[in-house]
Amino acid sequence: RCLRIGILEDLTPTAAARALSSVFNEVGYPKFILSDNGTNFKPIKIALEKAKMSVIWWNSAPMAPWQNGTAERFVQIVKSCLSIYDKKCRSLYDVALRFREVEAIVNARPIIVNERPISAHEFCFHRPPHLIPENNSNFVPIDLN
Fold it and tell me: What Gene Ontology biological process does one annotation of this record name (predicted)?
């Protein structure tokens, strides 16, 4: 359960399809999609069926958010992370950057605990996230000037 946040222009089916297409192009098509009964998802479901994509699409029951509890919990976690930021975003780039930071924070959480915890990022991308360089005497920062 790796989090990927998409930025939508509006709540139309076209905008939702673009955001999903962007995610699918980046990480591949899923086997299953569980969504709420948002009207912006219905045309996407039909388009996937017409394209003969082997994606199984489930809808939670109307007025039953607990059936999609994982997504609801992710929304709560993302809102909590975003609440620590200053509310003034200067550009769409700032918003996208903040979303990527929140993704990195959420996906760094351990989901499997063995001798060593495995994060969602490592589980999805088969490598640990290197968000902050480890203490290394040979580390030299990159000079961008």
Answer: DNA integration
